[in-house]
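[User]
Um, tokens okay?
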Amino acid sequence: MSEQDSNTPSQRDARVDAAALPGRGRKRRFLAGLVTGGLIGGLLAGAASAWSHADGPGGWHGRGWCRGHSGDPAAQGERLDFAADWLLKRVKASDAQRDQVKTILGQALQELGPLRDQHQQHREALAAALVQPSVDRATLDELRRAELQLAEQASQRIVTALADIAEVLTPEQRGELVKLAEQFRR
């Protein structure tokens, strides 16, 4: 007797009923999504933290994927150009569009550089404040406020650059970029 013959209608109905139990599949999907989101969030937070250091992590101890110093403006510019080229090829941007986008990104990178330096100074000041014999809460709060102000300035500059880039690209190209971004979020 084959395996299909041994499945009676009542056994199949039992499997369907077990799979259709309310909440059971939802709980599994929720937990799987929670774990996956936590892992991805942790990886992104670690990457952002590593890149926020002036000397960078040096990935694989400086011998691999992240050679050199991430604080080097020339290296940052090269990585930015590479990433822009990679994305703009996928949306079939013209040479003129590529040049405009690279100019916008270069200007944004130059303007964000000093904010990054200030962020590094705040991190060092925070570390120094935390190792003092007594905790100065006013200093910690001042550093917190300064960091929030830096984040606001950086956010405004980034949104301005995104809007400028969006004006250079066609609606179809912008749609393709959004699709690419969605793929990377998964």
Summary: The helical segments are 9-19, 24-52, 59-62, 73-90, 95-130, 137-168, 171-185. DSSP finds seven helices and no strands in the chain.
